[in-house]
């Protein structure tokens, strides 16, 4: 969960006299984190921060959506263990010709400074566009990673992790190289679309002459609070997606998801590896199936995510249960059966995807699906064995197509006063 902070209340006069509070844009986004009461206000699901108002008018409380705040500095980078956000942007950049280690360090320093400010609800450090002026932090997270090619371009080949070796080819791949890989990767998520776009634009502008955009994708999820109670998200096939996700409360969570502090290379301590896949869903074909046929493909009830063997969403799946005809209740090629960790040598990954819709083809076919993002301490033990098994006979494979792919090393979080990747670039 995001860290929470309790900012001290300030009067409107104190805000107006604070040179850091305006940034040349009148009342800044920092003012949003002030409070109307004398005791301060917890940021998070139960709290609210104040909205933009012309001083000295009384502050207006934000809703819980706007007040949510994640911390930039910490043991791990933000955007990994936080809950799914309503809006997301994924982008990859390539270093420009002539840009090397020095330019990359300056870029990561700029990006980190911008991320810290925006995640705090403040304006961008330079030439803020005011797109998010009226909003609070809205649980914004910005995450940075390095692709395979980054190390050659910066003369850091000896620091490239072996876990960053290119992913193997899979039979279900129809990859567009122009929308795959990249030297640098940025993940942006927020519970407000304007806040997310504001961050994307700031990051792109900060790239300057050091890096050029390689590809960019937009995604979305259900808005927090849209359901009567918190629940597992649904994907565009209508299925609950993420039922068996590892949880931070699991005893082996850190071991499976994060590189240990004593791991190699040292600069990846407390980091993780992100596999990114643009998976197109062949919705026209999928929607022709009856609900029972869809459930057989997945191995779970569409209504509540319960395994076909019975119980509720979190009930362990009984893979040996048969029907009156002696057939397995959960088919042998059901997606949920094949992806179980206990059927893949314990392989586990933390799924944190976004759905996407990029319009319709000329014949009316929807270009829609999943921006699949999964996190693991080692992709060769997490994503790769599961995907290989899916490749050999997953019932879902005929309804999806992998169209883009990337693998990125995401270092641990930056300490206060540091920038992301500093231990690599200055080590």
Automatic annotation (TrEMBL):
Chain intervals with Polar residues compositional bias: 1-20
GO biological process, one term: iron import into cell
PROSITE patterns given in the database record: DYP_PEROXIDASE (PS51404), TAT (PS51318)
Keyword Heme: yes
Subcellular location: Cell envelope
SUPFAM superfamilies associated with the record: Dimeric alpha+beta barrel (SSF54909)
Name of the protein this chain belongs to: Deferrochelatase
Species of provenance: Streptomyces roseochromogenus subsp. oscitans DS 12.976
